[in-house]
Structure formats: structure tokens, C-alpha cells
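Archive transcription. Copying these from loose printouts into the bound notebook so they stop getting lost. Printout 1 of 2:
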Amino acid sequence: MRLKVLPPTLRKNNRYLTVEIKTVSPISKDDLVTIVWDACVRFQGEANTANFNLWVMKFYETAIKEEYFEYKAIVRCQRGFVDDVRSALALANMYRNDRIAITTIGLSGTIQASQKYI
């Protein structure tokens, strides 16, 4: 028995946030996943975060300055929860006792369109 693919009208609509991460110490994609989930659970709660459909799609290292490391990433979330995810990410400021700053630099409906912000 073959699984049926959902038609586009029944699929969840996603939005893709392009975020810029500045941190004092280097991080990996797995660290960013932990940061995103911890920030959302801490500021929105587990019940609300379960609806976000969060996923880190792409992760790029863009620059290494003397004072900090700079990364960019594309984070997927469900349409309608974009403001909740943006606020949770903006409020995250510490990871493993190091300062971190996450800002949203773009929002789009496809991954290809969100890559123009990188």
C-alpha cells in the first residue's frame, strides 16, 4: 500500500526566516538547533512551541571578526507563528555562558527566496 501525498490545499504553509547570529564563541548547526528550541520553549512554552513546526534548514558561516563570530541561517516555521518565533529568537542572549545575538534579516515563503538575504 502506497502512502498518498497531501494535496497543496491540505499542507501546512511555511515561512522561512533568514537570521543573523553573532556570538563570542564558535557554534555549529546542532548548537543553533538547541538555541532555537530552547529560546522558543523558554519564552512561548512547550504547548505553543509544538505548533511552530521549527526546523533549521541551512546554516552558513559568514565572517570571523576579532570580537565575534558571525553566522547566517534559514529557519522554517509555520505561517501564523512567525511573530512568536521572531520574538523568542530576539530574546535569546546567552548560550553556554557566552553572549549571543540573533536578529531576523529576512522573511519569505520559499527557501530560494530567503537565500537572497545571505
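Printout 2 of 2:
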Amino acid sequence: MSKVFIIGGAGKIGRRLAAQLSTKGHIARPLFRHADQEASLLESGAEPIKGDLTALSISEMAALMNGSDVVVFTAGAGGKGGEEMTNAIDGKGLETAVAAAQQAGISRFLLVSAFPEAGRAKNLSPTFENYMRVKKLADVALVESGLDWVIIRPGTLTDEPGCGLVRSGLAIPYGSISRDDVAATLMAIIEQPAVNRVIIELTGGDVAVQDAVKKMAT
């Protein structure tokens, strides 16, 4: 059993991960910001923790994380609030979370990042270019942290029901994937500590999640 602190716990992937963890006997500790988000997180079997990623100091975040075995960062501005919010959540927020994990003595850290080809060959706005830049810098910050990290770069996210089949690898063609299957992959990685210090590109595919994750073990 693992205690998993989920940053972005009230988001679409975070909620799915919390529910899936609970069904497998793990303790999900999703971070949420708004009071009206708590009830549904409790109903999923999670132990929600109230806090605002953009307002917490490193020491405050570390105190909330304390006692957890794994940190999963699924937070993202999602294009809302422009570059300022992207910088605050996807950039500074990740840096705060990494420093807090170090302070709390939590070595295992999973990050949901962005597929390198996201938005390529399209008319990209400066806001999206900033998003991709910030995501890459966040990846760098985690890799250089010395933690036992795993970075997941999913393709285009969909809300279709998960099928439990994915394609994963160090470099794969761009595609789409359901948020259910991203959450299932995160859970499988949590249960496979041998998957460590690797960047995994992820889309829908024809390999069972558990098998795909095992192949990524280092």
C-alpha cells in the first residue's frame, strides 16, 4: 500500500487516479483548492487535502506532503489565465512541489508533462508556445532534482472510457489517449518502482498497461 500525494488532485487525471488508487487499496491524498471539490473526492475513497498550489510555500507544501510515499504532479493551467497562470502552475508550482518533496524526504516523484509534438504544424499562439517552453523547463527541473522521478508525456487527452491498452516508449508517434488510461499508467508506475528516471511518451495502443509499464523498467 502506498500513500500518494496528488497535486492537481481535483483535475481530470487527478480524480481518476485517486479513484483507481482507492480501488487497489492505496491511499490517495489529492490536493484540492475549492471547498466544493472535497465531497466528490471523499466519495471516491480518497483523503483530500486542502491547499492552493500557487499560494503555498515550500515548507507549507512539505508539511502537507508529510507521510506520503509518492508525489504525483498532474496540475496544469490548461490554457486558463494566460501565460501568467501557466508560469505559476506548470512552472513555479512544479518547482515548489519538487523542493517540498525533497524537504519532506519523499524521493518518488511522477510528473505528467506534454508530448513534444503537441500542437505542431498548427497555428500556435504565443500562449501555447509559452506553455510548451514552461513544460520543458519543468521536466528539466525535475530531472536535475536528484529525486527518483518518472515523466509521462501523454498525447492528446480525451474523456473516452479507458480500454487499458496503450503504446509507450522513449519515442513514439504522436496520438491520443484517454485520461482513464493515463491514470491507469500512473498507478501501474507507482506499483512498479523499477520504472525510474525515465521519460515515457504515451498514447493509446494495443499493449496492456501493466505490460507496457513493465517494459519501461530500468
